[in-house]
Amino acid sequence: xxxxxxxxxxxxxxxxxxxxxxxxxxxxxxxxxxxxxxxxxxxxxxxxxxxxxxxxxxxxxxxxxxxxxxxxxxxxxxxxxxxxxxxxxxxxxxxxxxxxxxxxxxxxxxxxxxxxxxxxxxxxxxxxxxxxxxxxxxxxxxxxxxxxxxxxxxxxxxxxx
Length: 161
Description:
Number of helices: 7
Order of helices and strands: HHHHHHH
Structural class: mainly alpha
Helix content: over 70%
């Protein structure tokens, strides 16, 4: 496998992970994945069960996650076109176009991560100290209910090392 093919394969695989929709809960009902509103409702219900969210917190969380979903959908709007451009550039061995498309996908990935991180921060801010402690002890992962293993506390300790 030549270097260009490996780069394209890595970019395609990375894009599939980066731009996959949904909070990592798989397909409910065995058919199509749930829509954004259903995913958000499921997420808020799960967080309510684990953290004991009040009605006001549930409403705020729903708004926070809905706004984030809307923003990430806008950010991802051109991903398919850019991936097609990347695929065409690979077939033409157009390294400049490959770099441009990869950079565009990277920028979108950064935007999505920023939107999701800000939503997690806004959610974390509405929690009581007891709820934050519970949240910090929950397992989190990409596309899940938190920011990564151990929640915001762990993120602070990892970034301060």
